[in-house]
Amino acid sequence: MQIIYTDAHLAHNPAYEIYEGELEPYSEAADRGEVIINEIRRQKLGTIISPQSFPLEHIYAIHQKQYVEFIKNRSSNLSKEAILYPSYFITDTYAPIVAGTYDASVAAVNCVLTGAQKILDGETIVYTLCRPPGHHAAHHTMGGYCFFNNAAIAAHYLSAHGRVAILDIDFHHGNGTQDAFYERKDVLYVSIHATPEERYPYSSGFSEEHGHDAGEGYNYNYPLPIGTTNDTYLNALDTAIQDVADFKPDFLVISAGFDTFSEDPIGGFQLTKEVYREIAEKIHGLTMPTLLVQEGGYNIQNLGQMVANFLSGFQA
């Protein structure tokens, strides 16, 4: 397995976020990327490769150019210790901009596009350690720790070469990814997540959202109740995998979040560390070129092991 990683993600490390009007330590901390890559190295789970650089046009295919330029300009004008909650293009208080936000976000896109190109070159499984994550970032909005939508950018890149399915297994619904493809039939979006009636992003991820116009019937959401356990989750996963199989894609993109873990500080499911290998084995059973894209997961003590368990399921 090839692992795409760069320490450029360390440049984005805000000290805090705002939750319910109060300053809280930033959950999407830089340590997340480091505990993952260190465990991958310790277990020798694959060959670690630095990303190539790609033109910004691939970001513009998903995001408004003015939005991208806004993040670039705001980042470049901040001092090293400054933190900004901008008045524009922001949907919540979980995506503060610091001096390194733009560079880290572009580096994450380069990781995922490098992984996508590896898939086109014949690799069957590639894991991209993207940070910041991406699936909440929409056409011209940041939010939920996300600035550029890594999975959506990769899916669009791959879609020039065939049909693409995205399976999102993060605890939170990938509202940005859904929006990107809601009126397209060449990219299927399937998501298993916490019910939006109780968890972020609250306004999307309902089961009746099936796509619009040309995209009608190419969007499936499986919201699950707070407290969902391994068995219930795996049953939903079986259904989601069947949706993917029925679509007959040429490529599969996985938005891989680990905030479904029972001890995740901002989650609410009861999945165990061990189940992530079984989740991966089920997905691997689709036997198609698969790009794994890192999304959430905020229990830093166990995150590295959970990702390692997940990746090992693709090596069986």
Describe the structure.
The chain is of the alpha/beta class and 316 residues long. It has helices at 31-43, 57-60, 65-76, 101-120, 150-159, 175-181, 230-247, 275-284, 300-312; strands at residues 2-4, 16-19, 22-25, 47-49, 125-128, 164-168, 187-194, 219-224, 251-256, 290-294. The chain has an eight-stranded parallel sheet with strand order 4-1-5-10-9-6-7-8, sandwiched between helices. The protein is globular. The model has no long low-confidence stretch (mean pLDDT 97).
**Unreliably modeled segments:** none
Q: Using the alpha-carbon principal axes, give the shape.
A: globular
Q: Order of strands across the biggest sheet?
A: 4-1-5-10-9-6-7-8
- How many discrete domains? 1
CATH superfamily: Histone deacetylase domain
Q: Which series of helices and strands comes N to C?
A: EEEHEHHHEHEHEEHEHEH
CATH domain topology: Arginase, Chain A
Q: Mind telling me which CATH architecture this is?
A: 3-Layer(aba) Sandwich
Tell me the radius of gyration.
18 Å
Which range best describes the helical content: under 10%, 10-25%, 25-40%, 40-55%, 55-70% or over 70%? 25-40%
**Average pLDDT, to the nearest integer?**
97
Largest sheet: 8 strands, parallel
- The computed structural class is alpha/beta
How far apart the termini lie comes to 12 Å
Number of strands: 10
Number of helices: 9
Proportion of residues in extended strands: 15-25%
CATH class descriptor: Alpha Beta
